Amino acid sequence: MVEKFFKLNEKGSNVKTELIAGLTTFLAMAYILGVNPAVLADAGMDKASVFLATAISAGVASIIMGLVANYPVALASGMGVNALFAYTICGQMGFSWAAALSAVFISGVIFIIISVTGVRKAIINAIPVQLKLAIGAGIGFFIAFVGLKNAGIIVASPSTFVTIGNLTDPTVLLAIVGLLITIALVIKNVPAAVFVGMIITAVIGIILGFMGMAGMPTLPEHFISFDFELQAFGACFSGISELFANPFQAFVVIFSFLFVDFFDTAGTLVAIGNRIGLINDKGELENAEQALLADAVGTVFGAVLGTSTVTSFVESSSGVGVGGRTGLTACTSGVCFLLAVFLSPLILSTVTNAVTAPALIVVGIMMAQQLKGIDWDDMIFAAAGFVTVIMMILMYSISNGIACGFIVYTIAMIAAGKAKEVHPTVWALMIIFVLYFATPYIM
């Protein structure tokens, strides 16, 4: 029954592979269970409540994605958009966290509407195939950069912006050893190489921790927690009046959430779709409506529970990297997130940045291979593709990278005398992107 429902044979997969892929994706995403509560706490929210909301919404949304869309894509409260929530909407603009949750809820409802009507699918399918490849490769570089940063291999520098980290730091060395082990396993075609690399890295870290090495993954005294209080449940409804006290600001806030979530999700789905063959001969993403609807429902559900925008996670590519091809991968990740409600002490103490960073970097290498599909002899696609990739990394934003790529693509097509070949949707998106970048200055 499981094989028929998820079409495992048709997708060239099996139950064992999907379960391992789902667990791999979960481990690559598990950091969000610690990071999201810390970020939203800066907006005045209770950490324990946010942790619970993050885990439950991620679990439910991932299972919906798996059952409805049959995509190997897991969802959770997105990084970047949670910073927008805490530091811009609540910090700079002065909204309460309840009003910010209201904006997240409304943006999710709008997403459901445009997903059901097919608007979202039409926009994604309007993205030129060459740009789809650039987006996929760009996300590969992006998550590799995230991995390098999380590991401490790359750090901030006041003079050169980024520089090499402290290679004598034990946690940095653990990440480097894990990276080399994972690369070796992939080259030797070891089954589930990325997942195995994470396990080996964690075990090495735990052993070093027992030997007295600081900062290593550790085993907690208590593996299970039963703290189930959701203090922010339903607060998204009480904050609506505050949100719309200033209609223009309300529009800006809702649009900001819409923009970031839409194109982060679009980039993730396109990248993974390219990787597992979900892009058809016409350059269209198969089952896009179902995937986008699942993503939108996740946002609404998460807002009601009390967390920032729930979105498709690019870390899902780590599960795809070990063979995940169907919704069973997403469902497995979802179940893991629900179990995390009970196992939070174990997860937060053993799945450290040093453990997940090698997986992100190696998967980034795999995704970057899509660059070979771009026609680098055509300056239109070379310029648009290059800008998409470089801006995604340097702006530390998937959505901003996509926006810059679209703008350059449109201008390049005009310069080449091919303005009539630009899809009307692409014209509309370019205008939206320009307005998005201009909004902070208009305000």
Automatic annotation (TrEMBL):
Subcellular location: Cell membrane
One term under GO cellular component: plasma membrane
Keywords: Cell membrane, Membrane, Transmembrane, Transmembrane helix, Transport
Pfam families to which the protein is assigned, alphabetical: Xan_ur_permease
Membrane topology: Multi-pass membrane protein
Signal sequence residues: none
Any one GO MF annotation of this record: purine nucleobase transmembrane transporter activity
Name by which UniProt lists this protein: NCS2 family permease
Superkingdom of source: Bacteria
Transmembrane segments: 20-39, 51-74, 94-119, 131-155, 167-187, 194-216, 248-272, 350-368, 380-412, 424-442
Assigned protein family: Belongs to the nucleobase:cation symporter-2 (NCS2) (TC 2.A.40) family. Azg-like subfamily.
InterPro entries found in the cross-reference section: Azg-like, Azg-like_bact_archaea, NCS2
Location, primary (coarse class): membrane
